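Worked example 2:
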Amino acid sequence: MTGDRVLDRTLAGRVVSAAEAAARIGPGETIALSGFAGVGRPKVVPAALVAVQEWPVGVDVRHSRVAQHAASGFYGALDVAVVEVAAILPNGLLVPGSSVGNNQTWLDLADKVILEVNGWHPRGFEGFHDIHHGAQVAPLRAPIQLTTPMQRIGDPYLLVDPAKIVAVVETDLPDTGQPLSPIDEESREMAELVVDFLRHEVRHERLHHSLLPLHVGEGDVTDAVLAGLRTAEFEHMTAYTANIRDGHLDLLDCGKLIGASATSFRLSAEGARRVDSDVHHYKGRILLRTQEIANHPEVIRRLGLIAIDSMLEADLHGNVSAVDGSGDFARNAHLNIFVGSSTTGPGGSGAASRIVPNVSRVDHTGHDVQVMVTEQGVADLRGLSPAARARRIIDRCAHPDFRDQLAE
């Protein structure tokens, strides 16, 4: 495969086995791995190590802040970056693969770099990416000059000092596909409530008929929202989000979505085959950015996103426990909508309410939450006092079996 994907002569001379590459990582050295949510993660070098403690260890912060914190030294020194790419060009430029994440930051900070060149990625990925190289640490940070979802502000390639590269490993292995669950009736009903609410906003001239750039988070219900948008009347939509999923491909294929910006693919095995078989159809319609820019609060607020995220639990104060990764989008969006079932199962015996007096973990405070949707209905919380907010959540979102108990 060296002739196809490793085109730099010097780096072609550094192609070794996974075991040989792993041997160039010293005991106790810190290791950062490429990828976002498991997509674009190196496949063979980590497996060749006895143990991997991925750097930064145990970090639970907003995704937009990880690169900034790492560059500011919050997590200590980075010894080794193991980064998966689709190809190495003759001039040493790196063609990214199915995700960008914080890969450029890892390449910049690491003392040593190991590249996994994965032939499974379509060679046509060249040109899919927009790598922003201008981020600085405080107080030198400049405004992010991004004003439309598909605007390019960087380069198509990852950059690395060739002197850092201690090994190149060739692979041909797929990302782990994300299984697609059939859309159940309850998810379909909740998705229709979300779409109806967007129609309501258009009728009241708070949204345009093409809406605003969409962030639709992960989950069965949010997958149903993407499916519902496919049959809705909205046209010429755009997406500015974290992951490109099968539902985004469906919207692009039918022409409802004209462009989607993210930091990573997160596709089923079938979705990955769709992209591979028609990669040039999606080039120019899909743009993968660095994680810091894809999740950047400044950009999200400027673009005026509609953020639709899965809700695990909500309380009467409006606080929400949500799926990881929603924070940057929901807090800074023009409009945020949280959607999820009102109970852990069918109402009645054996079920528990997901609408509770106080959530066990606050991911989004009531100050930031605007709209909640369950299978029971829609609670628009904008402009309400705390007492009115609690009453509306009970009346519109809680299951009838639990309303009296919650009202006490």
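The CA atoms of residues 345 and 351 lie 5 Å apart. Residues 185-244+305-407 form a domain with the Glutaconate Coenzyme A-transferase fold (CATH 3.40.1080.20).
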